[in-house]
From TrEMBL:
Pfam families: PGAP1. InterPro entries: AB_hydrolase_fold, PGAP1-ab_dom-like. Residues 164-211 form the GPI inositol-deacylase PGAP1-like alpha/beta domain. It comes from Solirubrobacter deserti. This is GPI inositol-deacylase PGAP1-like alpha/beta domain-containing protein. It comes from the Bacteria. The lineage of its organism: Bacteria, Bacillati, Actinomycetota, Thermoleophilia, Solirubrobacterales.
Length: 318
């Protein structure tokens, strides 16, 4: 992945940030000048000329970040795609991640376990898990695209796996559980071979933080001083927007379904556990009709590599 493309994008985004700060500045100063009235017109003209020149110079300087040798590591690209991946895909940017089987374990057995990471992550978030009797397929995908688009892409990827496969299971973390659920609803031939779907901290009914940001954007649009902040929040990707409502595509009737939830408190019934969940997803949203496993005293990201999670996965998939 060319580092110049990442640097160019960084310069553009930083320049846009300076313009947003300038918009807030002009909204506040404009309200002051309107309050003072016609007497302030000469001062306002001088102020606006100097301010516009200053912000233009700052934006130009920040745009020079395009020349920086920024590191296009997978983790950096994963986070970037989570934020604006839909824009990157639509523009044909070389920074847009394509759905791919980034890592496949050996030997290639007839039982395939597909690992689907969450928002802003890559396959590296899982470490190197392996469950006996299964070939692991770790996907990497653009988490900024809509869940329905990624679900369709995942369905095509699984269908294209090129060895004799008798059994398929899918494990998804957070958004990954929604993408896996969407893929299974695509009615592709491989879904008849799905034995299990398992979601870890997946917001099937939506995530509170995504819902809060949605409402905050609406509030911030009500005043010119805060409208630039609303515009910034409004740029969140299609994938992030989908997390507000979650996904309730019908579950496969021919497969078993496992749901793992977590709470920051050891007792899930504790008030803090009911209010905070795993810090990003509430237990009720992470649950569904199937096998349930509640893990106390941990948080959302810890589910990716928690030993008790892998003990439960092995028990369900044995």
């Amino acid at each position: 992945m060319p580092r110049t493309a990442l640097g160019r994008l960084a310069g553009t985004e930083l320049a846009g940030l300076s313009r947003g700060i300038g918009d807030v500045h002009f909204a506040i100063s404009g309200r002051v000048f309107r309050t003072v009235g016609p007497a302030a017109l000469p001062v306002r003209a001088l102020h606006d000329a100097i301010a516009r020149g200053t912000y233009a110079a700052v934006a130009g300087g920040l745009r020079s970040a395009a020349l920086l040798p920024l590191n296009a590591r997978p983790e950096v690209l994963g986070a970037l795609n989570g934020l604006i991946g839909d824009e990157l895909h639509a523009s044909g940017s070389p920074l847009a991640i394509e759905m791919t089987a980034a890592r496949i374990s050996e030997p290639r057995l007839p039982a395939v376990l597909v690992w689907v990471h969450g928002l802003g992550e890559t396959e590296h978030a899982w470490g190197h898990p392996h469950l006996p009797g299964w070939t692991s397929v770790h996907v990497r995908y653009n988490t900024g695209r809509s869940i329905a688009e990624n679900g369709a892409e995942l369905a095509r990827l699984i269908e294209a796996l090129d060895w004799d496969i008798e059994r398929v299971a899918l494990v998804g973390h957070s958004m990954g559980g929604l993408v896996a659920r969407s893929a299974c609803a695509c009615d592709a031939p491989w879904t008849a071979r799905v034995s299990h779907t398992i979601s870890l901290g997946t917001p099937h009914d939506g995530a509170p933080l995504a819902q809060l940001v949605h409402h905050l954007e609406s509030v911030l649009r009500s005043a010119p001083e805060t409208r630039p902040f609303a515009q910034f929040l409004g740029r969140r990707s299609a994938g992030i927007r989908d997390l507000r409502r979650g996904v309730r595509d019908p579950l496969l009737t021919t497969a078993r379904h496992g749901f793992i939830s977590a709470t920051v408190t050891r007792d899930a019934r504790h008030l803090a556990g009911r209010v905070l969940g795993d810090t990003l997803v509430l237990s009720a949203s992470a649950s569904g009709e199937g096998d349930l496993f509640a893990l106390g005293g941990t948080h959302h990201l810890a589910l990716l590599n928690h030993p008790k999670v892998y003990e439960q996965l092995e028990a369900w998939l044995a």
